[in-house]
Amino acid sequence: MQIQENISLLPHNTFLMDVSARYWAEYGSVEELRDLLRRFADMPNLFIGQGSNLLFTKDYDGIILHSAMARARAVKETRDEVHIEAQSGLVLDQLIEQLCDMNLYGLENLSHIPGETGAAAVQNVGAYGVEAKDAISEVQALDTTTLQPCTLTNAACRFGYRDSVFKHEATGRYVITSVTFRLSKKPVYHLDYGNLRDALPATPSPTDIRNAVIRIRQSKLPEVSQTGSAGSFFKNPVVAEETADKLLSKHPAMPYYKQTDGIKIPAAWLIEQAGCKGMKSGDAEVYEHQPLVIVNRGNATPEDVMTLAQSIQEKVKEFSGIELQREVIYI
Ligand code: EPU
After folding, report:
1. Percent of the chain with pLDDT over 90
2. Residue 199 has pLDDT above 90, yes or no
3. Residue 167: predicted pLDDT
4. CATH class assigned to 72-219
5. Residue 227 backbone phi and psi in degrees, to 5
6. Identified catalytic residue from 111, 178, 232, 320
7. Domain 2-67, CATH class in plain words
């Protein structure tokens, strides 16, 4: 177990915000986690992975906890499937690389997404037509009210678009300790998103798909190791059919996707049409290749990012009447 006091959070958030935390602690086992929860029971706490989907808006006056549990093991195997239990602190992309090497299908479309396994379940990360929930069979957690381990089925996690029970009524109740994924030994393809299929042979391996996804992501999204950002800053809005029809009558070229609960409109399109490409506030800037992303050009402050995000929301509202919701969580 490692506990530090008054530390800079700069290495712990991909937006590269230079703020600090009163305490930082890393636990290597469920017993250590239990210990920390008991020891710091009176203090606000926050569990983070790589800090790749949040914006620290100020110094954090509490304890930030990080899982150093980072192993994966097969827990069940049938003729067609392998179930892999991955601990919360394992970097998601390292897990995916291992699964692709084992020729297992299920998570390859999520290659190169920053973040760790536990947070990926909280956020139900998604890309190229697949969401983490599609492969999650169950989640193991520590119940903070009893300090006992428990298991949540996929249904109990109530996954939605970048959403789960852990972002709502279960906030603070459970700490995810590992996630069990159900992977297929036989090809199960999801290649209909954009031009993913074009770049692939007829019967691609998981690694072929992983490499194609990585190439597409690198061409559109900033590398978090080089440029501060937290990926998509806003969610793609799902609007009523009448709202989409009204916009379509004015903008016939508007892209849209029918969903069970309405019409999804790409936020990137709305932001571009609202004239936000190239917009800046201090060192925070709308990313030129994908306007859904806000980047830190060097010394952006939390205020710079929040000011820019608000200006984008206002411009999009003015242009379309739609209120963009943040995907990035403000702390
Ligand atoms: N578009 C524009 N202008 C642009 C870029 C895109 O108008 O400059 C429009 C185009 O119509 C394009 C559409 O936006 O077809 C969709 O763009 P893209 O395929 O890049 O995906 P996205 O909807 O903007 C979502 C996720 C990404 C994920 C990609 C691929 C959300 C909020 N974002 O972006 O996830 O990688 O699809 O599946 O759902 C993240 O969550 O951090 C993230 C990066």
Report:
1. 97
2. no
3. 95
4. alpha beta
5. -130, 130
6. 232
7. alpha beta
Question: What mean pLDDT comes out for the span 259-275?
Answer: 97
Domain 223-330 falls under CATH 3.40.50.150: no
Q: What is the mean pLDDT of residues 212-240?
A: 96
Task: Provide the pLDDT confidence category of residue 272 given band limits of 50, 70 and 90.
Answer: very high
Domain spans, the chain: 2-67, 72-219, 223-330
Query: Computed over its alpha carbons, how large is the radius of gyration of the chain?
Result: 20
Cβ neighbours around 197 below 10 Å, total? 15
Q: What is the per-residue burial (b if ≥16 Cβ within 10 Å, else e) of 270-292?
A: bbbbbebeebebbbbbbbeebbb
Annotation says 162 is catalytic: yes
pLDDT exceeds 90 at position 89? yes
pLDDT tens track for 107-120: 999 999 999 999 99
Pocket of ligand 1 (CB under 6 A): 127-128, 193-194, 220-221, 231-232, 235-236, 255, 266, 268-269, 272, 290-292, 327
Position 220 pLDDT exceeds 90: yes
Q: In this predicted structure, what is the pLDDT of residue 88?
A: 98
| CA 268 / ligand 1 centre spacing (Å) | 6
Residue 1 confidence (pLDDT) above 90: no
Ligand 1 midpoint to CA 232 (Å): 8
Protein residue with its CA nearest to atom 27 in ligand 1: 127
